[in-house]
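Reposting from the mailing list since nobody answered there.

I have sequence plus structure tokens for a pair of proteins and want to know whether others read the tokens the same way I do. The first protein:
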Amino acid sequence: MSEDPHSLSASLSELPQSCSPVTGTGPILPRALTPQLVMPSLTVPQRRPFSETGRSLGKLKVLVTGRRGIGKTSLILAIAQLSAHIVHMDTIVAAPKNMANDVYASTRPKPWWRTDPDRDLPRRRRSSTLDGVLDRNICFVDCPVYGDDIQGSSPAVDYVESRLAHLANKLMDDPDLCALLSGGAEPNVDVVLYLLPPSGPTSDDIRCMRDLQDATNVVPLLARADELSTEERLLAKKQTLRDLDAAGLDCFFFAAPGEDRDHSRIHAISSATQVDPDVIDASILMSSEYLPPFVATDLGNLVKDLLSVEGSTWLRHSAACKAIKWMRQQRHQGGLLPSALACTRRSSLFGLAQSIIFQVFTD
């Protein structure tokens, strides 16, 4: 038998002669010449158990942006690893240049009454579908902030505004629209995690952050904090906050109003890993399931604030208020922005094509 006690595979020579398919088919071969067919044993990693907080989290769309090579994809993976509430994340596939890449994750199962196609038999199917289908309620968007032309339109800004363009056609009062957006019923971006270098924001960063903050929440982050000492991180935070305040940016901070938490208004994060001195067992270090710990930064606090019931609800509500304000500005200006207008036109053409196809098949 194989070395794994749970394996059910065996070589042909190790089976009893009454069960071996080679018995009686020819001369008995020496053991050294007998085919040794051993099926490998695979250990399937178990999915994380659902947490109470994860089950209570609603839908949340997080756009991660910043200059090329600053660690956007690494941050998304680090958030999924650190958060105990994320039980699954889809594979990240490389997107075309200057294009946004949506990556879905899940913190909760889809309710059984949403997975049951036969609404007349809910009780019979409820037990078989409970917790069996994941609800991909978290969406991470990996998007560059600059295109080939830095002075041109920003892919991140275009993405955020295009998700709000179709709201202009909804004939709803502001309170109803706010309730719709706060509930996560629309694909608008709830928060932008804007990665900045330790040197602080440039004039182009300020311009893009100003455009983004008009449509959604913007959370500034200092990337590559592992390259700085504790004193350097503190100085970088203070200098970045002074730059943001001097530019008049209205960034989103998880600190409640009135709290004296200037050092917590901005997170210095890193997705770099380090060697765990407490783990010296080679079998653990070589295991495919072993994940080395991250360098100690503010990343844990960011994940805790971001994927909490209060934090995610706060982000959705704040993003809804900004979306309504953005729509008012567009109405006051007498039209939509070019990127939003293009998205609306594509949606209208798609709807027109659907109606034409429907008429052809029904006539």
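The second protein, same order (residues first, tokens after):
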Amino acid sequence: MKKLLVIISMFMVFLVGYGKVKPLDVNMEAGTKIPNFELRDFNGKYTKSRKIFNNGKPTLLVFAAEWCPHCHTELPEVQKFYEENKDNINVVVVFTSRRTNLTATKQFVAENKFTFPVYYDANQSLMNGFKVKNVPTNLIIQNSVIENVFVQIMDYDNLKQAFYLN
């Protein structure tokens, strides 16, 4: 009976200690390895970040918002960059739910005819995990490692320079 109680106690300790999912916590500096997380598309389908970040291509990760005037300036530039480089560079745009909703964000993307991959941060876990305070925020990622962070509006030429495509 004592053995059974010990086994049950050990199992409970394991569940309590390892059963919790840690919130995403990313140090937003060059050289930081990003832990795996999930991206949720506009239809609620989830994709593991490592599937994108570890496919051998560098990645442009953009945090944006449909209400943000700076994003309105940047995202058409991202679209142009995506169209010309989608075979060699991943482009991922994560829209925040901060001060908006999914319906308004979907409408914004459709009206602007954006074709780059879009995801929605419904519960702010990505914005909080990456400690994003301002949009747009742009990260250059290679093999799940941050190479550079730009908290500014990026135009087409800036994006080319960030990926050494001159």
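Reply #1 (J.P.):
I read it the same way you do. The mean pLDDT is 91.
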